[in-house]
Design a protein that fits this description.
two-stranded antiparallel sheet; Hypothetical protein YwqG fold; mainly beta; about 200 residues; binds zinc ion
Length: about 200
Amino acid sequence: MAKLMVYTGPTSESAPGTRTGGVPLVPEGFAWPSCATCEGPMQFLAQLELGPDRLLSIFMCQNDPGLCEEWDATAGGNHAYVFTSPTLTPATVPTTGVPLLEETCAVRIEEVGGADYDEARAVFGRQAEGGPRIVPGQLGGEPSWLQGDEQPSCETCGRPMSFAAQLEEGHNHRTAANYGGGSAYAFHCATCATGAFLWQQ
Ligand SMILES: [Zn+2]
Ligand SMILES: [Zn+2]
């Protein structure tokens, strides 16, 4: 059994809840993250509802793809936030760099049987119009690592972080996130409300 994310079509760029692309909903005082390497603004990729007042928000540098260690959980080329404020509003989008994806997609969660995520995604893809590409990932469950296990530790408390989601690039090359053709993995620490993000190819 896996909780698959399934694209349900375009949505408003400031839609609440789980979606890919669009403008991130952020708490008051939020500062858009900059890349540690190129210092440009990161790109907003997705926001995922982990629970009530718990929104995981994922950013990654796309100013110099491949040159900013944007696949690494700690190198400063990406950033994952856990927002716990009940009041979130659309962020002010930077006017430089590549801060947004070209498409905002609504996502629903569907529980699908199977030994693991890969099997559930394949089973779902066989019966769905659009195939497995309309599944941009899974929420919770177990990560399906392409390389070795890279579970990160919380930067605040040092404990291993909980797996939050696996993300695929998207259903359309033109508007997709760039994980080098691989898969991305998001984690959070429930205690500290911290997030982490990385990808493998
Ligand atoms: Zn960069
Ligand atoms: Zn922690």
